[in-house]
Amino acid sequence: MADQEEEDLRMALRMSMQNSPPEPKRSKPRDAPAGAPTDESPEIKSRRLQRELMAAAAEKRMLASKKDAVASPPVSGTVVSCSGSASGSESMAVKIEKEKEKEISVKDLNLGKELTEAEANQLFLMVFGSEVSRGILSQWSNQGIRFSPDPETSMGLVQHEGGPCGVLAAIQAFVLKYLLFFPEELGKVTKNTPQTLASRRLSNSEFVASNNFASLTEDAKARALIRSIGEILFVCGSNKRAVIATLSVVGHNLEESEGNLTDEIMVKALEDLSIESALDLQKVLRINTYTSQASAFQKLEAMIPVFRSRMGAMLFLISALLSRGLDSVQADRDDPSLPLVTAPFGHASQEIVNLLLCGQAVPNVFDGRMDLGGGMSLKGISRTVEVGFLTLLESLNFCKVGQYLKCPKWPIWVIGSESHYTVVFAPDTSVQDENELEERESQIRKAFDAQDQSGGGGFISVEGFHQVLRDTNTKLPPEKVDHLCSTGFIVWSEFWQVILDLDKSLGGLKDSTGLMGKKVFELYHFNGIAKSDLNGSQVISGETPVQRPRLTKLRVSVPPRWTPEEYMADVTVSSSSGGNESRGKENEAAKPEPPQHAPLVDCIRTRWPRAVCNWLGDPPSIV
Questions:
Q1: tRNA-binding as a keyword (predicted)?
Q2: Structure confidence by residue, pLDDT tens digits, 2-57
């Protein structure tokens, strides 16, 4: 009997949350669509009458409890404390409030609609292909979006499985944007959410100190994550919509809990879940579409444990793809027959990374489109991005990253290597400020790239070369022009050397005064894969090294001359000259630290040519 009364109470509460009061004796469904038949099937009518009788019974019980209470408050969603003989009513009010909170939690986690069989097949084949291995599926269904428990790397997302690093690195870049540059806006994410935060720059006094990550609260990190996921999904949806994917098993376990989704509930919910086919995905995947940012953020806030669970990375990727639209994703790509998750190691393709950074699943990293003739073209990045991308492959001359990705709005870059994605960032936006000569260099390079139809090979036609000279107002001596054009095409490296030797007055970069400013700044590199930390006091003799993500601080110096060789030659001459001991000591003190090298330095030099880097401890790893 008690169980029946509890069920009656729950039913009454559900009805009380509707826009109008319950009407127990209704003879036909409310708000019947125009033109819809009024006749009900026996099964529907039976369920409706049962529901109305239960609601009426619950109402009688609630009215009886009010009469018994001396000073009982009206139950309208706000609980007012009672005293004295109203203690029984107070207990009832608390129970009612808990039930309403549970109902709201279930409502926030409205599991949404199921994909059709055709949609599930298209999605699964697009992501994994028809011959995906169980190992790759295991990688992608066992990677949550979770912060590092280590205080020194607490701002970073931890990677446990190979494969989803491209997804995690993209989210990490946006999380850093909010933690570094918008700390004061990590308030309640569901209220007064600004439409865009990208246009405003903050002063240095508002930056989070780079060595103060241990002070970040779990609440601030969670809100930064919610903002980041929401922003990425709306970018994928052309700032018009965001699709959020969840799992049907969440609802089953939430009904058995107190209504609040937790990590423990997610672990239990996913105990027997295995995704090995499109059918498996269709059975459990549920989606909701949001056009309001406030509603989407509220949903994401309720779903944080879902994204922290082992299915988090896969659900986020699916959400991004559906926000863009599966047909639009395929139209973005140069070869839509290939899976987005690449074999044999299950890495995220460049198309996935580009989708998360710029909202389009294009496969290339150059600016704009490249016309191949015959109506064919290759698609690149079409707009300025919030956070950027650099790759080791450019230093190996396999590709050319355009200015959109190299110069994002915020000094944060996803770093790509042959097999992994990591993140580099600067706590100060001034690292992207250019002096006069750097701006000139960027102008010339951009004009050259606009004429480069080789796919980033670094050469242009004679006609294109003359266009570059006109566009950049560069006045080369006739003999230099004839020499560069003698082979029928112009190579960037040869053209650039001529520009370096050409005086500024003629449009070149040679500075006869030798007073070019030296740029010095700090970068931080984060690798989310837990590795052995061999630095300093972290390792005690005979003990196993600590396994944790790596955060490395780099000191970056861009020399005052336009080639490292000239700069280092000057340092050698200066330090070896001098006529007395004090002069020698002075030069010795001024001598910079010897440069250190790692593959990451090659990536950094694609953004800041001639950069010299130094760090303490182990070299930063991009694999």
A1: no
A2: 555 556 555 555 554 444 444 443 434 444 444 444 455 555 655 566 566 555 65
Convert the pLDDT of each residue in 420-476 to its tens digit: 999 999 999 989 887 777 777 788 888 998 888 876 678 899 999 999 999 988 888
Residue 551, phi then psi, degrees to nearest 5: -120, 120
Task: Using alpha carbons only, give the angle 4, 269, 11 rounded to the nearest 5 degrees.
Answer: 25
Residue 159 makes CB contacts below 8 A (sequence gap 6+) with 143, 165, 168, 528, 529, 530, 549
Share of the chain above pLDDT 70, in %: 67
Q: How far apart are CA 296 and CA 290, in angstroms?
A: 6
pLDDT tens figures, 378-435: 999 999 999 999 999 999 999 999 999 999 999 999 999 999 999 999 999 989 887 7
- Cα–Cα distance measured from residue 412 to residue 423, given in angstroms and rounded to the nearest whole number: 7
Q: Are 439 and 188 in contact (CB under 8 A)?
A: no
Residues of the chain with CATH 1.10.238.10: 436-506
Report the distance separating Cα 288 and Cα 243, nearest Å. 6
Residue 4: left if φ>0, alpha if ψ -120 to 50, beta else—which one? alpha
30, amino acid identity: R
Omega before 344 cis (within 30°)?
Answer: yes
Question: How far apart (Å, rounded) are the C-alpha atoms in residues 362 and 375?
Answer: 18
Structure tokens at 27: 């003879």
d(CA 178, CA 184): 9
How many CB atoms are closer than 10 A to CB 192? 9
Separation between Cα atoms, residue 304 and residue 301, nearest integer Å: 6
**What is the pTM (predicted TM-score) of this model?**
0.70
| Residue 343 CA: distances (Å) to CA of 45, 141, 276, 358, 622 | 54, 16, 16, 24, 20
What's the topology of domain 436-506?
A: Recoverin; domain 1 (1.10.238)
What is the 3 state secondary structure string of 419-451? CCEEEEECCCHHHHCCCHHHHHHHHHHHHHHHH
Contact predicate 274/83, CB 8 Å: no
